[in-house]
Amino acid sequence: MWTGHAAAADKPVYAAPAAWVDVAAIPALPAGPETPATQVLLDDSQTWLERSGGTFYNRRVVRIVKTEGLSGSGSRSVSWNPTAETVTLHTLAIRRGDQVIDLLQGGKDVLVIRRETNLERAMLDGRLTANIQIKDLQVGDVIDWAYTVHRTEPLLDNRGQAFERMGWGGKIGRYRVRIEWPQDNPVIWKTTTGFPQPTQSKAGEFTRLSIDLSNAEAPKAPAGAPLRFLRVGELQASTYADWAEISRRMYPLYDKAAQLAPDSPVRAEIARIAAQTRDPKERAFAALQLVEDKTRYLALSMGDGGYRPAPADETWARRFGDCKGKTVLLLALLRGLGVEAEPAIVSTTSGDGMDERVAAAGQFNHIIVRARIDGKSYWLDGTRSGDKGGLDQLRPPSFRWALPVRAKGAGLEPIEQPPLSEAQTETKLHIDASAGLDKPAPVRVEMLMRGDAARAFSRSLETAPKADIERALKQSISKTSSWITLETVDWVKADDGELKVVMAGTSTPEWRLNDDLGVRELKLGGGEGRGTTFPRREPGPNADAPFALRYPSYARTTVEVVLPGKGEGFSVKGANGEDAATGYRVAKSAKVTDGVARFETVSRSEARELPFGQVEAANAAIRKAAYDVEIVRAPKGL
């Protein structure tokens, strides 16, 4: 978790906007054939980026048009980091005709609370929220809400960023954005598709970037597109010169925190690992497991904990740390073991298209370690748990881009993620119908998991009661196969991290008569004609963008039916062959071998995206595949 720090306040200030703010007049209600329950009359954002930090003014004026608009409009709130930001509340008023009803009243009814919204994720950020309940709100009222947030970050020389996004529905009466900065504090800015071209002008020693629109509509993002194409109607501005500046400014924080005291107990751990092996990969993996298993995750981002990592010795002593603390502890271990390593900041949610955005520290929310051994990079994340099998079993993370933290600075570097070389999940349903078509059939379900799939399931096994896990597994099967009754559930975890779940029970397969063919059939799946296709897009920005695929993915599903009479006279109906038209390489087979009817589907993704020009063919292939059936046919008379 990343936040800033500075001397600030734990209560709002109540005052008029600063002199640099241009307070707008409220426009009339926009005309239109369709009237929403609430109508935004004014959305006004003004930003002042200076050497002492950034100041952000926002005013939003909304009219309650229908009764339905009352339920979602009964309060206003603003959150801030009390050690990094100050909040000034300017206006909260109801405008009812010529009457103006002041709801702030100098803070009389303002409730300031601390809400740890990520507490269940072991993250404490200390943010405060000022909340005001709006009393006596009526249809036709206009709510006028304005405030300013001032933010500083001395650790990073008060560098900052501004961000605007056109993300509303319907029309806004007036939409205005202004960003101003002194010429000695240059700003780099960029817009994405769908955002109006701003006007840049100079006024004395200041530069202004602005747009001012009437009856503004927000662009709509293309359905199903990768993240970088979903960022439509955005404006970014930053006072960082480039990515290398962020890297340089971060370096002293991590270099100092990773230094161990002469009597540090971490040195004993280094010596212990070093005595066990001379192999650098084995040493690195042992260090990673130590950080994962011996320090729990807890993010404390209050004060200057947003950007400054806790020292490695402190994290080890208290046995917990956030991504920053775990990173410096891992760095200290690796350096002591002679393994080349450096911190690298990443985004867990917004990596796609990071290289197209302006440089700003706020783009990142996580930090990991890159170790280099024999010319190969290994990305190590101390906040994970349960990694097994060694360094070569670790796959590169899905963050897409990383910014190494170096004394001389660094640029963004891609994190390459190759396709999976083996299935991450293998599911086999084995039905023993050898006793006859009308007899109960023993059934066995096997699920083999590898990689992150096994790791995630292993965590649930360690934290949830065994009975709850068994119940959930049984229910997952019964939802789609109610004719199966599972009685036992067992699992085995291998040293290399693989996990195998085995469930056993009985079933009552439904062999139904096919009147046209005069034979009995067991339908195992498919044929409904309901495939999940790629959505059609409306005209708009990036309408021809590619479609995002699940990547990496690799799964194998097998259904086996042991047949009576060693399968004599039995046949199967099902798809055979391979198809990659959907963006996924799908191989299917259906056959009877040695008295066993076997259906297998192997699906894997080999790319992140499907080009737009291939979507029609992909949808046609998906619709066709949705009618594929898996059927076992008995011989006549049986």
Automatic annotation (TrEMBL):
<protein>
    <recommendedName>
        <fullName>DUF3857 domain-containing protein</fullName>
    </recommendedName>
</protein>
<dbReference type="Pfam" id="PF12969">
    <property type="entry name" value="DUF3857"/>
</dbReference>
<feature type="domain" description="DUF3857">
    <location>
        <begin position="54"/>
        <end position="219"/>
    </location>
</feature>
<dbReference type="InterPro" id="IPR038765">
    <property type="entry name" value="Papain-like_cys_pep_sf"/>
</dbReference>
<dbReference type="InterPro" id="IPR024618">
    <property type="entry name" value="DUF3857"/>
</dbReference>
